Amino acid sequence: MKQPADLPEALSSFRAQCAHGEKTSQAQLDRLVDQWQDRREVLRPGEADETFALVDADGTLTGLAAPRWLCHLVGLRHRCVNVLLTWRSPSLGRVLVAQVRSWDKNDSPGHLDISAAGHNKALTSSEQTAYEELEEELGLGRDALQGGYLSHKGGYASYVERPEDNFYNAQWCEIYTGRLTTEGLERITFRDAEVVGLYLCPISRVPSLLTQTQLPIASALKNTVPRCLPAGDI
Questions:
Q1: Which of 85, 107, 185, 231, CA to CA, is 20 to 30 A from 94?
Q2: How many Å apart are CA 68 and CA 119, to the nearest integer?
Q3: Do 108 and 218 form a contact (C-beta atoms < 8 A)?
């Protein structure tokens, strides 16, 4: 894997100047794609071949688009959804249903993470993406949710970088919450192999889960849960 000093200077300079994609143009982005396409697998190995719509710091579409590998290579802000699910246990009360990420994931392998999450593809709405990720990662449809729906709880901007992996991830994250029925919990299957297990944590113990240091916690779980706990949204 490339080290920070090995990242091509042109890409480093562009990342510093483009303000997560707000100070650039589609023509500039297209030129970067053409210039670095043949090195994408070296710079960002294993990235899926999909296009993301770019957004500003408030989550508003800018009209620009770039491939996933370039977004993560130079920190272009794109959209994602984070879905938080809970279930009422007969003995523990309401519990958070967290996922265990596959050990084959490029980002945070084996970490505890949000119940389901994913990037918006092209101009797909966040609501549609939330239901699609629920189906793709956990094999669940709307009938697994109490009331048959997810609730939208707003959004926030996030930024995580790991220079040692050439990973600069600027996102606008829309939050959705839902309550699983018992039948829904029992029907969970790991359909796309991105999830390898579940971790059930009583809501009262979630703050301790997020601050402990024994179990690795993904940034999406750390950043999203505190935005829902105080309001009683989970």
A1: 107
A2: 9
A3: yes
Single out the residue of 14, 3, 18 nearest to residue 36, CA to CA.
14
Q: How many Cα atoms within 13 Å fall on the side-chain side of residue 195?
A: 25
* pTM for the predicted model, two decimal places: 0.90
The H or E element that residue 112 is part of is strand 112-113
Q: Say if residues 102 and 137 touch (Cβ distance below 8 Å).
A: no
Whether the CB-CB separation of 228 and 175 falls below 8 Å is answered with yes
Helix (H, G, I), strand (E, B) or coil at 106: coil
Q: Rounded to 5 degrees, what are φ and ψ at 103?
A: -75, -10
Within 8 A by CB and 6+ apart from 79, the residues are: 52, 53, 55, 59, 119, 120, 126, 129, 171, 172, 173, 174
**pLDDT, averaged in runs of 10, over the chain (234 residues):** 59 93 97 93 89 96 96 96 96 96 89 95 91 96 97 95 92 97 96 92 95 94 89 62
- Complete domains list, the chain, with CATH: 4-78 (no CATH), 79-154+175-228 (3.90.79.10)
